[in-house]
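Appendix C reproduces, verbatim, an entry submitted by the partner laboratory led by Prof. M.T., so that reviewers can inspect both the input and the predicted structure.
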Amino acid sequence: MKKTTGTDRSVTQSWRPATRAIRGGTWRSEHGETSEALFLTSGYTYDDAATVAARFAGDQPGMTYSRLQNPTVAMLEERIALMEGAEACRAQASGMAAMTAALLSQLSTGDHCVAARAAFGSCRWLVDHLLPRFGIETTVIDSAVNEEWERAIRPNTRVFFFETPANPTLDIVDLSFVCGLAKSHGIVTVVDNAFATSALQRPMEFGADVVAYSATKLMDGQGRVLAGAVCGSEEWIDEVLLPFQRNTGPNCAPFNAWVVLKGLETLGLRARQQSENALALGKFIEGRVPRMLHPGLESHPQHALAAKQMDAFGPIFSFEVDGRERAHAILDALELVDISNNIGDARSLMCHPASTTHAAMGEEARAEMGVSEGLLRINVGLEDIEDLKEDLDRALGAAGL
């Protein structure tokens, strides 16, 4: 295979975001296919023994085994890195594989990690349960308070780990401050950017070292496959992440990589339209619910910071009602919006985090991070906004709001 004309880094760096999303990282075989080829192979053959020896020694480029390289996966990695503004990227089997690899590849017994308390339930499980099993100390803080990051630093602090916007409370982290603080102490920042993607926010522009993704979400955009990605400098990817990935195997399947490649082609269009729909729907229901958590609304305490860091506010927001019974009543009354715990889909989806994504955390931990019994999270899709308003109006009315 060869890269298409003009796709060397000196050319692609000059491309604008929409062009990168369509053409970045494209390779073509001798057949000249327009769509990226799907290589469903686990292994590769070689012309002679010297060639395979040279490849395994790292002296000659080329494929050796699909746990290490696959042409379809490599195309996805190049495209994500290009869109993110990163030097390199490694695709993963899922978003949680990406988060786990980003942390375990660089943390050892005796190290310390500072993490945001507002996070996806499985990310909190990594911090609260998995890392301590290996003798890695962890401190959980209110990530929206800059001073808490500084107070949490210890001599053995190696990593800051956080999401922004956070799932499901939509807390916003001050990227410039936190990343700058980390750099001044030799700490690596790992940012989960799944709620925004590079279409709406690029943490590396604010000094982030590592950006991790659930590509299952907005990157795919249609709820079809599981995938993840970790972006960073070429040195960090090759020397820190790759040895972990090579020997533990959390790799993205070629078919899943191909599906995400197709999703990236429309990511910018979808993310902007879904953000517009979410803002309109948030404004529509804001006066009818006790509490709104939407960074695009002026009522959000970090609205100005979100506007500074993000090109748009994303398709996801949360709102709070009085207790689980009323929250479930709203879900049960929906006719258009689906009850689902996924996000990033082109379809509108709503869930009750306390009984789904954060159920395993326990009541005390949920209360600590602000996941109340009445909290509902919605992923706003690409349906007509008037139909979505009518559905939410009907559901809220059925629940007495």
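Residues 267-285 form the longest helix (19 residues). Additional entries are available on request from the coordinating office.
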